[in-house]
Amino acid sequence: MSRIDRVNHELKKAISEVLLFEVKDQRIGLITVTHVQASADLKQAKVYYTILGDEKKREDAKKVLDSASGFIRQALAHKMSMKSTPELIFYLDDTLDRTIKVEEMLDQIRDETKDETREEDRENLT
């Protein structure tokens, strides 16, 4: 595991703890940090997260995370021994949503293929 991978792992763990125990805004609800991608110079870190809820809940969580990023960064500085703590940029991880959409499309294609196969079988029987 490279140095940056270790830093990303530790950042993810520390950010998750800060969100769970120190950020008291209920609009973030059940949030999960899925991964962190720090820049090579450790000046910035992209923080990807998922959250349960509808689009409004996601928008509210994004606003909270963006406004609390300084607080979260300061909490990280106390938790981690780094020369400088990276600026945090939060992104909604929509991988699960996209996976579900792809699965739904594949199911639809399978259903259409089954229907076409049934019709061809009926035609061949007559």
Highest-level CATH class of the largest domain: Alpha Beta
Work out the helix count.
3
Element-by-element helix/strand order: HEEHEH
Relative strand content? 15-25%
Kindly state the mean pLDDT as a whole number?
90
Total domain modules: 2
CATH homology group of the largest domain: K homology (KH) domain
Q: Percent helix among the residues? A: 55-70%
Which class of secondary structure composition applies to the elements? alpha+beta
Question: The biggest beta sheet, please?
Answer: 3 strands, mixed
Q: What is the terminal separation in angstroms?
A: 64 Å
The backbone outline, from C-alpha atoms, is elongated
Strand sequence of the main sheet, in spatial order? 1-2-3
Query: What's the number of extended β-strand segments?
Result: 3
Radius of gyration: 22 Å
CATH topology of the largest domain: GMP Synthetase, Chain A, domain 3
Low-confidence stretches: none
Question: Oligomeric status of the shown chains?
Answer: single chain
CATH architecture label of the largest domain? 2-Layer Sandwich
